[in-house]
C-alpha cells in the first residue's frame, strides 16, 4: 500500500440503506417543483414508478416519466428523451434503474443544459457549462454509475460504445437502496455483480500515473491511488463474500445490501482510478455479440488477471489476504495465483460461462477484437501489464478455451 496521493470524486450526498428510497421526495423538493424521471418499461410495470410519482406529488413536485430507456443506450434515445421534455423544463432529473437508465439521466442533464451535440463531448473533460442536478437511484448492484463521472452510450456511426467522462456527470445525490434490487433475477445479479468486482479489481491494479497538483484538473482518471485503493478493497471484500448468496437467493437481504454497498464503493474506486484491460476488450466483444456488458466482463476477468499476474503480483496478493483466502505467511506469488483461481471459481459458481465461445465470439475475430481493444487507449494504458495486440490475442485465445496460456509468456511486450 502507498499513501502518497489520493483522489475521490463523488456525489454531494450518498444515501445507503434499505428504505432510503423514501428520502427521495424531500431531496427532490429542494431543487424545485418539476422533476423528470428517466427509467424503463420494466420498472414502470413493477409498480415502483407509480409509488414514486405519488410520493413526489404529495410534496408538490410535478413529475414527468420517460420510460423508453433502451439497452446499450443509443444516442437517439437520449435526444428523444431530452426533446420530449425540453418544454417541461425540469429542475431536477431522476435516474431510476440499471446503468442504462442512470447514464440516460446523466446525459439528458447534459443536453437539457445546452450541450446539444453529445458527439462533441466524447472523451474527457469536455463539458462546458453547469448541468442540471441528477439524483441517481440504482436498481442493479453493478455499474456504480450512481457515483461515477462517466456515461456510456451507443452511437450508430461508430462500431463501439463511446464514453463521456467529466466530473460534471457525477450525480448530485445517489440513493442506494438495496431493497430495489431484490427483483433482479439470478443472471442479472451475477452479471452486474461481477461487473462491479471487475471495477474494483481493475481500479486496485491500475497503473500509478503522474499525480502532480494538476492531475485531478487535467485527467478524469488518475490511476491507482490511496483513496481508490481503500474503496476498491472494501468493494472486493463485500462482493466476494456475498455475490453467490445473492445469486442463489434474491431475497437474502444481507447479501443484497452488501452487494449494493460493494458496487457503489467499486464505482467510487474506478471513478478516479479508471478501469483497464477487461473493459477495453469487452467493448468490441459487446459490439460483436450484443451481449450484456457484465457478461463479457465476467468471462474475461479471470483470463485478464491471469495475464496480468506477472505485473500485479503484489496487488493481487494484497487482495487475496484482504478477502481471507490465504494466510499471512503465504508468498505473494502463491497468493496472487490463488486469487486468480478464486475469481475464476466465483465466475463459474454464479453460473457464468468460462469461455467466450458461449456468447458467440468467433475465433476468427480475434485479430479484429485485439485491434479494437487497443483503440480504448485510456483503458489499455491503465493496465498493469503493457497491453499489445499480441497480448490481447493471448488473453482471447485462453478465454476461447484454447490451449493457450493467458500469461502470454511467449509474447514480447513493449
Ligand atoms: N456510467 C458508468 O459508470 C457505467 C459503468 C459500467 C457500465 N455502464 C453501462 O451500464 C449499462 C449496464 O447497466 P446494468 O448492468 O445495470 O443493466 P441495464 O441498465 O442495461 O439493465 C439490464 C436489464 O435489467 C433490468 N433491470 C434493472 N433493474 C432491475 C430490477 N431491480 N429487477 C429486475 N430487472 C431489472 C432492466 O429493465 C434491463 O432490462 C451498460 O450500458 C454499460 O455500458 C455504465
Automatic annotation (TrEMBL):
Domain annotation Alcohol dehydrogenase iron-type/glycerol dehydrogenase GldA: ranges: 11-178
Record keywords, A-Z: Oxidoreductase
Oxidoreductase in keyword set: yes
Start and end residues of each Fe-containing alcohol dehydrogenase-like C-terminal domain: 189-400
Gene3D superfamilies: 3.40.50.1970, Dehydroquinate synthase-like - alpha domain
Keyword Oxidoreductase in annotation: yes
PANTHER family for this protein: ALCOHOL DEHYDROGENASE, HYDROXYACID-OXOACID TRANSHYDROGENASE, MITOCHONDRIAL
Protein name in UniProt: Iron-containing alcohol dehydrogenase
Species this chain originates from: Billgrantia zhangzhouensis
Amino acid at each position: 500500500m502507498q499513501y502518497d496521493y489520493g483522489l475521490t470524486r463523488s456525489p454531494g450526498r450518498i444515501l445507503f440503506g434499505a428504505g432510503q428510497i423514501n428520502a427521495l421526495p424531500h431531496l427532490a423538493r429542494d431543487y424545485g417543483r418539476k422533476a423528470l424521471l428517466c427509467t424503463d418499461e420494466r420498472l414502470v410495470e413493477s409498480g415502483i414508478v407509480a409509488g414514486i410519482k405519488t410520493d413526489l406529488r404529495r410534496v408538490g413536485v410535478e413529475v414527468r416519466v420517460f420510460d423508453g430507456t433502451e439497452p446499450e443506450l443509443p444516442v437517439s434515445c437520449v435526444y428523444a428523451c431530452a426533446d420530449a421534455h425540453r418544454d417541461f423544463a425540469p429542475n431536477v432529473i431522476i435516474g431510476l434503474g440499471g446503468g442504462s437508465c442512470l447514464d440516460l439521466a446523466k446525459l439528458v442533464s447534459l443536453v437539457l443544459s445546452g450541450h446539444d451535440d453529445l458527439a462533441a463531448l466524447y472523451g474527457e473533460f469536455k463539458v462546458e457549462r453547469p448541468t442540471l442536478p441528477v439524483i441517481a437511484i440504482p436498481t442493479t448492484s453493478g455499474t456504480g454509475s450512481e457515483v461515477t463521472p462517466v456515461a456510456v452510450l451507443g452511437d450508430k456511426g461508430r462500431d463501439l460504445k463511446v464514453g463521456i467522462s467529466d466530473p460534471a456527470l457525477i450525480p448530485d445525490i445517489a440513493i442506494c437502496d438495496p431493497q430495489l434490487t431484490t427483483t433482479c433475477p439470478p443472471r442479472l445479479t451475477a452479471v452486474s455483480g461481477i461487473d462491479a468486482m471487475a471495477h474494483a479489481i481493475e481500479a486496485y491494479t491500475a497503473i500509478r500515473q503522474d499525480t502532480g497538483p494538476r492531475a485531478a484538473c487535467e485527467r478524469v482518471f488518475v490511476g491507482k491511488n490511496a483513496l481508490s485503493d481503500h474503496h476498491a478493497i472494501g468493494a472486493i471484500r463485500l462482493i466476494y463474500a456475498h455475490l453467490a448468496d445473492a445469486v442463489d437467493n434474491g431475497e437474502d437481504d444481507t447479501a443484497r445490501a452488501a452487494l449494493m454497498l460493494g458496487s457503489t464503493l467499486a464505482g467510487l474506486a474506478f471513478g478516479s482510478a479508471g478501469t483497464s484491460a477487461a473493459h477495453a476488450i469487452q467493448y468490441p466483444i459487446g459490439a460483436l455479440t450484443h451481449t450484456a456488458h457484465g457478461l463479457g466482463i465476467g468471462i474475461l476477468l479471470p483470463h485478464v488477471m491471469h495475464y496480468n499476474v506477472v505485473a500485479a503480483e503484489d496487488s493481487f496478493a494484497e487482495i487475496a489476504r484482504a478477502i481471507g483466502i490465504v494466510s499471512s505467511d503465504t508468498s505473494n506469488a502463491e497468493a496472487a495465483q490463488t486469487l486468480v483461481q478464486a475469481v475464476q471459481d466465483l465466475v463459474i459458481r454464479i453460473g457464468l460461462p468460462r469461455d467466450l465461445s458461449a456468447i458467440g465470439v468467433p475465433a476468427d475475430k480475434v485479430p479484429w477484437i485485439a485491434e479494437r481493444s487497443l483503440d480504448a487507449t485510456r483503458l489499455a494504458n491503465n493496465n498493469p501489464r503493457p497491453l499489445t495486440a499480441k497480448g490481447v490475442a493471448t488473453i482471447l485465445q485462453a478465454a476461447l478455451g484454447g490451449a493457450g496460456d493467458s500469461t502470454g509468456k511467449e509474447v514480447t511486450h513493449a
